[in-house]
Specification:
The chain has one domain. The protein has 6 helices and 2 strands. Helix 1 crosses helix 2. About 13% of the residues have low confidence.
Amino acid sequence: MGDSPAILMYSGWKRGRPPTDEWVEHTREFLDRAFSMPILAADDQIKCPCSLCCNYVRHKRQTIEMHLCREGFKENYNTWTAHGESFVGNEQASASGADEGFEEADRMDDMLVDIAADYQLAEEEPTASAQAFYRTVKSADERVHSQTTHL
């Protein structure tokens, strides 16, 4: 079929219905490509292109597959700049300008990750308010009572 893979990401998926076989195949190819690029796949995670995460949150492949099947791709993500596709030379994207500027934001994210990796944490006790916050976060992962099925 003559449709581009980006178009198939929208035409093969409808909320509440199983995706088409073609959609599943192209989505797997998309994820294979993105996860094969070391610059994109830090700690076996890439930016999640689902309609909820919108390339702002990084997840492992299994989580992204679930998100995409349940929520679909983020709206108007026709040039996959956060997943290795070059913005330059894409006639459709340059005509619409819809994704312009996202490439720079992605590079900023990478720079922040680089800086954080070089930062040496001080060996000191967290403040009382930080300890209280950590306890709160930790308690969110505990069951409320033994009969609950959710954390």
